[in-house]
Amino acid sequence: MSSPSTTFDTQHFKQALSRFPTGVSVITTHQLGEANPAEWGHQFVGLTASSFNSVSLTPPLVVWSLGLKSRTLPSFQKTSHYVINILSEQQLALCNQFAFGQGDRFGGVDYALGTAGLPVLKGALAWFECRNRSQYTEGDHIIFVGEVEQCGFADGSPLVHQQGGFYCAQKLQG
């Protein structure tokens, strides 16, 4: 078993974290803050994230985090609502488009507007329309707690990220 030396090794930490598989999501909201909509070509912003988890059933709360250096941070800090779209195994290209895309990340993306007027991505395995309930700065990220106002799901298997790669999580047989 490998363990870090007396000096904390960030790369070792990242390798240890990569052993835990996580679902992949695209989080969407209105473009707000200091960004220029003409630069991105759209009124919405979105990003790929794997830092999503449930917090509470009563009230229904979820949590995710965003790096302090993200160019989308001002929009997510100032918005009243956002949508967390859980990607299905067929949405790897969409994952990459929102993770690495330049300009209009919504170009060619099929979506419907949810109750708060935000993009719910077609083909998503699940989606959570959230009120931006609270934010906490910790280390090099901001932790967002969302209160789920609407949600939905579809049949299928999730897109999973582990050890730097993407995989399909097969449905478990009960």
Description:
The chain has 174 residues and is an alpha+beta fold. It has 4 helices and 12 strands; from the N terminus they run αββαβββαβαββββββ. The strands form 3 sheets. Strands 3-2-6-9-10-5-4 form a 7-stranded antiparallel beta sheet.
Strand order in the largest sheet:
3-2-6-9-10-5-4
Number of strands: 12
CA-atom Rg in angstroms: 17 Å
Q: Mean pLDDT, nearest integer?
A: 86
What best-fitting shape do the alpha-carbon axes yield?
Answer: globular
Helicity level: 10-25%
Question: SS-based structural class?
Answer: alpha+beta
N-to-C CA distance: 33 Å
List unreliable stretches of 5+ residues.
none
Percent range for β-strand residues: 35-45%
The topology string of helices and strands comes to: HEEHEEEHEHEEEEEE
**What's the total helix number?**
4
Question: How many strands, what sense, and barrel or not for the largest sheet?
Answer: 7 strands, antiparallel
Give the structure's gist in a few sentences.
The chain contains four helices and twelve strands. The chain has helices at residues 10-17, 37-40, 73-78, 92-100; strands at 22-23, 25-30, 44-49, 52-56, 61-67, 81-86, 111-113, 119-121, 126-138, 141-153, 159-162, 165-168. A seven-stranded antiparallel β-sheet has the order 3-2-6-9-10-5-4. A three-stranded antiparallel β-sheet has the order 1-11-12, with no helix packed on it. Strands 7-8 form a two-stranded antiparallel sheet.
Keywords:
seven-stranded antiparallel sheet; single chain; 12 strands; three-stranded antiparallel sheet; globular; alpha+beta; 174 residues
List the SSEs and their pairings:
Blueprint lengths: L9 H8 L4 E2 L1 E6 L6 H4 L3 E6 L2 E5 L4 E7 L5 H6 L2 E6 L5 H9 L10 E3 L5 E3 L4 E13 L2 E13 L5 E4 L2 E4 L6
Antiparallel strand pairs: 1-11, 2-3, 2-6, 4-5, 5-10, 6-9, 7-8, 9-10, 11-12
